[in-house]
Amino acid sequence: MNSTVHHPLAVPLGYHAGSRPAWLLLLLSRRLAQHIIFWSLLFLVNAVSIGYFAGALLENVLCFGIRLPFILAVCYLNLSVLLPAYYYKGHVLDYVALVVASALLLNALNLFVFQDLMRTGWLPVSLTRDAEFTAFNFVYKGFLMMTLVGLTSGIKLSKDHFVQKQKAESIEKEHLATELALLKSQIQPHFFFNTLNNLYALTLKKSDLAPEVVLKLSKLMSYVLYETDQERTSLPKELAYIQSYIDLESLRFSRPLTVDFTVSGNPEHVQLPPLLLLPFIENSFKHSIKSSGSAVHISIHVTLTEDRLCLLVSNPCTDHAASSSKGIGLRNVKRRLDLLYEQAYTLRQERAHQQFTTQLDLLLT
Q1: Residue whose C-alpha is closest to residue 63's, from 38, 41, 46
Q2: How far apart are CA 72 and CA 76, in angstroms?
Q3: Which of residues 360 and 180 earns the better pLDDT score?
Q4: In angstroms, what CA-CA distances link 97 with 90, 91, 102, 186?
Q5: How many CB atoms within 10 Å of residue 252?
Q6: Once rounded to an integer, what is the mean pLDDT over residues 224-244?
Q7: Hey, which bits of 37-188 come out as E strands?
Q8: Structural domain boundaries in the chain
Q9: What topology is assigned to 208-363 in CATH?
Q10: How far apart are the first and last CA of the chain?
Q11: 83: closest CA among 146, 154, 3?
Q12: What is the pLDDT of residues 266-297, one digit of tens each?
């Protein structure tokens, strides 16, 4: 009998004390570190380097150190409250007015604090010019504060845009993957539906071919069940599947049938989506059954070059196209080609002189 022992001090993998996910703590710690680095660099540039070159290092460090909490207050008020509550909701004018008002108010409070510290003797007299509340200082320091608000807002907006773009791309990929899976799942029942209809016709005739059809059908089902669950399959397996399908279809033809199935080039290292070529082969037999003539000739050629695959199928057909309500397999494979290959394929189909020709060119990736 199996049993599981839970240690009282054991913590689930990926969680921290208080059931906080470890990834969340890591994210917060990284974010905090990024913010600390940003403001530290800003402090070094504005207070240390400028003060050092101006010959007033201590005064600049002291002045900017007192000013930094007010800058942080207006920046994080903007990032945490004003941007989500107003800008992201489309109230741009209200947002701008509140940002400017917040910056002016905190700038004024900062200058009042400077004056009080000067009056009580906490600040040296050498800082009088930078710390006293004058129109020039109010405008100059207010402009610098707004510059930092704009800088941090730009970083935040750029980051949010990047995150939203990644989410949209992820959703689109998931949507395409779901659609591709649905299309592939529709092709398989469509094929087996046709094959079972053929088998039914043979059993009605009490044909000796029925057992052979069942055997070949079981092999095809084995391929579909166990070899097509991956995004790509090897071309030799796909070609063997097509050959089995041709053999199966050939058994039910009442008229003399000739199928030329040839492969030029080396297919060994070629990978492609499973069941991508089959609907075109299936279509050639469907057209041929409805065609006139005492004998049927179907030509299927697969040509491989270094970076391309060409499928050329030619078969007899009637003079008129089939109803647009049919052809589920072809509609699905065209959609799969659009999703998987986008502009990296061409498909041409032509009906002329009681011959239907399909040419598919794929750029192999």
Answers
A1: 46
A2: 6
A3: 360
A4: 14, 10, 9, 57
A5: 20
A6: 83
A7: none
A8: 20-170, 208-363
A9: Heat Shock Protein 90 (3.30.565)
A10: 52
A11: 154
A12: 999 899 888 889 889 988 888 887 777 778 89
